[in-house]
Amino acid sequence: MSSDALKKRKPKVLRTEGGTPETKRGRGEGDHQDVRVYSEEVELDARDPEQDFLQYKESCESLATLMSEIQELKANGAKDGCAEVEQRRMQSCIHFMNLKKLNRLAHMRLKRGRDQTHEAKQRVDVLHLQLQNLLYEVMHLQKEISKCLEFKSKHEEIDLVPEEEFYQEAPQDISRPQLTKNDPHQLTLARLDWELEQRKRLAEKYMESQTTREKIQKSIEVKKEHLTSLQPGLNAIMQASIPVQEYLSMPFEQAQIQTEVARHLPPPLYVLFVQANAYGQACDKNLCVSISGDVEEAKALSKPPEDSQDDESDSDAEEEQEKTKRRRPTTGGQLDDKRREMLKRHPLSLCLDLKCKDGSILHLHFYYLMNLNIMTVKTKVSTSTDLNTVISAGDLLKSDTLLSCLYTSDQGQETPNPANRYQFDKVGIVCFADYVEDLGHPYMWVQSLGGLHFPKDPSEGVRVGSSLCASHMETTMKLLRGRLLSRLALHKQFASLEHSIIPVSSECQQLFPAKTISRLARWTQSTLQDYMELPYTRHVTDAGLATETDLYFMSVVERGTAHLQAAVVLSPRYPEVSPLFSLSLSWKGERSGRTDDNLRAMESEVNVFKNELQGPRPGRQLLTNQFSRLCVCLDVYLETEGQDDSVEGPREFPREKMCLRTVRGPNRLKPFKYNHPQGFFSHR
Amino acid sequence: MGPVELLHMSVFSQSFSPCGRFLAAGNNYGEIAVFSLSAALSPDATALSQKPVLTFTAHEGPVFSLLSTDCHLLSAGNGEISCWSWSELIKKNVKPLWTKRPNYKSSLEIPEINSMAINSRDNSLVFGGGDNNVHVLDLEHGVFKSVLQGHSDYVHCVSVRDREAEILSGGEDGAVRVWDSRTGQCVHCIEVHKYESCARPQYGKWISCLTTDSDWMLCGGGPSLSLWHLRSLSPTSVFPLTGCQRQTTFYQDMILAVGEGPAVSHCLLGGEVKAQIPCTPQSLNTLQLNTNSTEHRVLTVGGSSDHIDVFTNLSYRTFSFSF
């Protein structure tokens, strides 16, 4: 109980003794106090805590006894100021004092102990820190060591010369064999030295070569300058020589320019250009190839690689559709633009001029439709003579029919590229034929010449590009030339037919008797419509031999009162496909080849047995010879007709032709076949 | 054969095979085409079955006459007669068994053979043509037995009366001559154009068709088609058909006739024209009834076309063969 009270009081004492407010009040007092505290401390050192503890116990016991004595005395009724009690109170006070001192000492001892512990702890901390440092140092050093161990020298990467070689080649002062033979480190050093030496030497050599190179370059430069200074002079010479070239027809200059321009041609036209040039040089000196069109535009076109137009047009078309929904009135113009874009031609075109022996020229202009990926051709014919006088020949040399059906059924009206169908659907093009007049004809052979291949028949061998072009070039050129010549020949024939003259060349004279009385009276152009309306041509149209591509003519052969009408179908492939005659005779009533066997025989005489009539190859006189034979046949027909003896008077057509028999066979045919040297007529 | 040649083709002669399943037809280019009737008449016939199973060039000139015997096909070309075996033709072997040419005098033009007939009495072939004569070829020995001379112009048609051993021939000269096949003598000569009921001077006088049946004879051409009674040698009925007739035949109690004009004429024996059935060619040269086979009993006609019309029923055209 008493110890508790002590403890409670103890902090107060401590505060009064070591509290900070006292130290702040004044230093002078502090010194005095220090001295006092110090003395107590010294005392403390001298005292034994065990003894103090015993003293404390004694004091406490004596206090307790004193208290109990006072208690007894009080209880016995002693007064407060009684001496005995006072004595005892005095004694207990002394004991209290003693206890106080002991308490103070204990506190001081505790403090000291604490200080000592703290000190020791600090020391331990320092030591610990030292230990840590040392450990770290060790680790670092270990790392360094391992780093050093792992170090790789650069020289390991250098390819050194092998040892033997080194000893052979290196001079003694570098190799130092006595040193290096046993010491690999020295050996390596020596080898590196040698390497360095060698490299230095090579570097020197390199520098030397560099200088010589520069020297040479300089000299080249000088020479170049010299050469470029020659260029204007040469150009001037070239310029001056152009007239000479032209005079000698050696177009070197032109060819050069052309090849330059040709680089900007689209691939199909380029294929055609190269192949046509090659063919012209090799086989056909009269073939002239030239490029026309806007080169600058083509250059601009060829710069960005042609992106696929399809994607663009795809999205465009969708947009288009949306737009049509929103704004109806303007769509027409937009569609027009789309169409124009779709049908756009490459700015460059290729012009092939085919010269014929008689001076007429067939100009072929080849175009490439970029977005449709097809080629088209336009044609023009220039002739040495004026041809406009012949009325019925108007269609013969017209651009859109001239090359029709060059190959069988190749009319050049529809696009050969099946993909175009879908492109057309998008922009509302119904039929390519509507644009043919503007764009030219996309004949199949044109695509072949351009190396474009659109397979229709799976059995066809697939060839594209130059080989396809080359395989078609010769035949096509021959066909083109043949077509032009045959058209010109036809033109001439028409000219004389219009004047009712049937020209017969000397080679063909033997085909006909010397005297022919029937005459051609009329030769006019006709149309398919008119032709089909004729009553005597139905069998031809039914057989599919009269088509839109053919040309139609009406002619009349006359003798006396007899008029023989002949409707002629002229194929564009004349003379390969011969003209087809249908006959109708008005003489003593109407009869036609359909009803009269003899007229039918006359038809077959001109239509079927045409091979005899072709004359010199390639048979361009066929048409006029057919007319000559028709006249002869009409003579025979009229002269052998009417054996009816009952009619009085002279015959209208006296028998002049020599015939073995006038009729033959079950259908009583007349002898239409002329036998040349003997001059008589016989039956087939 | 190009389209132009097809356009100008004429069919001159036809003959059914002995079995009746095939039809041979000759045209003006000297070709003979063999068509399969059984294929064309079968229910699953296609356009292809109306094309010939075999086409071959038999002669240089037109094939004016075709005739089938028990197992052979005889074809007449320019002055020559060829014999083909039907069994070989069906197997598509085209090699003539023989080709014979009578001894003609003229050398400038080889006379054609217009008509042939079989005289089964002595197994001989009677034919006439461009040399104005009727020739008899013994088929047993292959020799030309006799020449019946008398016509002044070429012979259009011949016919044989088996029972009477008579040969009849009609010619361009307008005469129908009746010959005794045993002696080779001309028994009668009927000049049809001199009978007023038959004569048609606007056409001419030639006799281009001639058919006999027991005592009856049909003849026509320049003169009108007329039915004659041979015992009395007088015309009993004249048929009012326009154009000249080229071939006729008796069929049951009717007469079928073809000629100029695109129709087959059905006539009654009394002289009326019962019907004219239109067909494809504009003028007709030949008509044949297939009596060799009951299941393929058809009438075929050919003319100035590459089509041969086939009639399964006499009253309308069923389909056409085409070269």
TrEMBL record, chain A:
One of its GO terms (cellular component) is THO complex part of transcription export complex. Keywords: Nucleus. Residues 307-321 have a biased composition (Acidic residues). InterPro entries: THO_Thoc5. Residues 1-36, 298-339 are annotated as: Disordered. It holds the Pfam family FmiP_Thoc5. Residues 22-36 have a biased composition (Basic and acidic residues). Belongs to the THOC5 family. This is THO complex 5. It comes from Zoarces viviparus.
TrEMBL record, chain B:
SUPFAM superfamilies: WD40 repeat-like. SMART domains: WD40. Pfam families: WD40. GO terms for cellular component: THO complex; transcription export complex. Gene3D superfamilies: YVTN repeat-like/Quinoprotein amine dehydrogenase. GO terms for biological process: mRNA export from nucleus. WD repeats lie at residues 148-189. Keywords: Repeat, WD repeat. Belongs to the WD repeat THOC6 family. This is THO complex 6.
